[in-house]
Amino acid sequence: MKKRIPLIIALVLSVGVLASCGEEPFVNPGDYLGGGGTGQIADSADDVTENVKEDFSDEEFSDLSGNTSADGATTVESSGGVYTIFDSGTYRFSGSYGGIALGDDGLELHLIFDGARIEAADGIALNGADHKKAEVVITLIGENSVSSTAEGENAVHIKGSLSFNGEGALSVTSGGKNAIKVSKQLTIVDCSLTLKAANHAISALSVSASDCEINVLSAGKDGINAECDDETTAFTTDEGYVYLKNVDYSCETAGDGIQADTVVYLDGGNYNIKTQGVFVPKTQMSEYGIDADDFKYVKSGSTYQRIASDETNRYGASSLYGLVQGCKGIKVGEIEYPDPANEDKEITVTEGDYSIIIEGGTFAIDSTDDAVHANSGNLSVCGGTLTISTYDDALTSDVLTKISGGTITVTKSYEGIEGGYVEITGGKIDLTAQDDGINAASDDLRVEEHIIIGGGEVYVDASGDGIDSNGTILISGGETYVAGPTSRMDASVDSEHGTVITGGYLFAVGPLGMVETPSRNSTQYVVSFAQNQSIAAGTVLSLTDGNGDALFTFRTPKACQSVILSCPELEKGNPYRIYGGDSDLCEFTVSGILTTIGSSGGMGRPDGNFPGGPGAPGGGRVPGIR
């Protein structure tokens, strides 16, 4: 169980823009426990989803996709020099140029790149850095390239808005700064972009893209970065967002794969995100300006391993490492606003205002830092297929983490799923965690944490607590299978204020030392079994009824001594057995909401059949076997 650190929050802007895209929130566990869990959920899921779709309309995509005509274009002869545009209109570029520059503000330009090569050895290759009212559309035909080798310069810099369309491709390289820098809106439709940058690959006020390819070969910072204007003083969905619809996006970065100040909304497409951070020892803390608390890794062979914050005092400064910069897979960040009561002080908005929504798509995320992180906001996974490997947390938010659909596989993580509140209502989750598998924790003392599992299939393999809440846990539906720790200091299910079971399937295994049984306030029968003798890893554990029919099963991936299980089929007064493979571990009769038993086992199964296998009576799917 993690201890909360007191945190004084000066101000919270209560916009509550995005929360989820599933069903209505469940009844709070506090209703069953008589207090201890009153976490407030933001707007209802259905309302929030509709608001998101209204805010991120696809109309701009269809309009831009149709704007590819080169009729009436002025052909610009290839000269190798810089071509400066003074009048609005349509211009066609083919061949080699030393640069393209906007010569006046307020220009409305449609540039046709048809085999264009724009190479600037000194300065910006496509330069609209001085004209904030410019509106530029670039249609790509065939293969094109833009590059700048100048130190501290962007390859493309448009202070107004920029759009890419067409069925062609563009390669953009900046040896000194960002590949593409746009001070207002960047929109990409249909085409293919390949980017290399010393800094961000894409940096804009907001980024919208549809039915296109974006391939970031390398970036010294973020792959896609969307930042609000410096003058922004209140949260808004008009800027600071990344909206990608049916986009094929790949990146390899030293910073974040996708970073936004307000919203990341991903709907369909394929995402291959790899972030590779730079680690430095604590002895170089002042040189890099890194906070002492950020040194939370130790070197393990040729790689690094995250450790708990309360373990860092065991290591010297030369043995603790920190990341030079954040390198998360997908991140929504924080914006700091001026405090109206004190102009010299800034306030960080901390609740309900930022969100990451994953509605669909295929994701492969390999990150040194967190894989998906809604910093001070809500995270919702509604669909898609996610495969995650990370040194840190897989899915995490400072407020609500909600999963209502999709398939999530976490092959490596420090903690698997984390939030002030965690709600799982659907989908399939299979995660491995070095510490806690699913964790509800918050530094904000106003948050009364809870974990609610009301649907889906959840498989947890954790070396720390399997499911851990600093508040309450409610299991009301779905199938939940937990292989907890082998350490006696952690538990398969751990809650500060109690665990309530009202429905669904739970099969949790762990050690003897910290067994925590669900509350007797549960409304579905629960069985807690323990024995001194260890049950070997790989053993198929099964619950059978009085007829020998398997009710549900679980193949434990590690040795265990305790079993906590609950399912709708349990009835008071009826006999049941728990098997470990062919060994009869115990026979019991349900005596009440919580039945606690123990046995040294050892007696063979009378019929010798594998519980739940082809010979099991009753037929049909037996929950638990994968």
List keywords for this structure.
single chain, 626 residues, mainly beta
Describe the structure.
The structure is a single chain. The protein has 626 residues and is mainly beta. The longest helix has 11 residues, at 45-55. Helices cover 4% and strands 49% of the residues. It has a 39-stranded mixed β-sheet that branches. Strands 45-44-47-48-50 form a five-stranded antiparallel β-sheet, with no helix packed on it. Strands 20-23-21-22 form a four-stranded antiparallel β-sheet, with no helix packed on it. Among the domains are: 57-236; 279-323, no CATH class.
Q: Termini separation (Å)? A: 30 Å
Structural class: mainly beta
| H/I helix tally | 4
Q: Could you describe the largest sheet, including whether it forms a barrel?
A: 39 strands, mixed
- The rounded Rg comes to 28 Å
Shape: elongated
- Described by its quaternary structure, the protein is single chain
Low-confidence stretches: 1-20, 22-27, 34-49, 599-620
Query: How many β-strand stretches?
Result: 50
Q: Percent of residues in helical segments?
A: under 10%
Beta-strand percentage? Answer: over 45%
Summed over residues and divided by their number, the pLDDT gives a mean of 85
SSE blueprint:
Elements: H1 30-33, H2 45-55, H3 59-65, E1 74-76, E2 82-85, E3 89-97, E4 99-102, E5 108-120, E6 126-128, E7 135-141, E8 143-148, E9 156-158, E10 161-166, E11 169-174, E12 180-189, E13 192-197, E14 202-210, E15 213-219, E16 224-226, E17 241-253, E18 258-260, E19 263-275, E20 279-281, H4 285-288, E21 297-300, E22 303-306, E23 320-323, E24 330-332, E25 336-339, E26 342-348, E27 354-367, E28 372-374, E29 377-381, E30 385-390, E31 395-397, E32 400-403, E33 407-412, E34 417-419, E35 421-424, E36 428-433, E37 438-440, E38 450-462, E39 467-469, E40 472-483, E41 493-495, E42 499-510, E43 526-535, E44 540-545, E45 550-555, E46 560-566, E47 575-580, E48 583-589, E49 594-598, E50 603-604
Parallel strand pairs: 1-3, 2-4, 3-5, 4-6, 5-7, 5-8, 6-9, 7-10, 8-11, 9-12, 10-12, 11-13, 12-14, 13-15, 14-16, 14-17, 15-17, 16-18, 17-19, 18-24, 19-27, 24-28, 27-29, 27-30, 28-31, 29-32, 30-33, 31-34, 32-35, 33-36, 34-37, 35-38, 36-38, 37-39, 38-40, 39-41, 40-42, 43-49
Antiparallel strand pairs: 20-23, 21-22, 21-23, 25-26, 42-46, 43-46, 44-45, 44-47, 47-48, 48-50
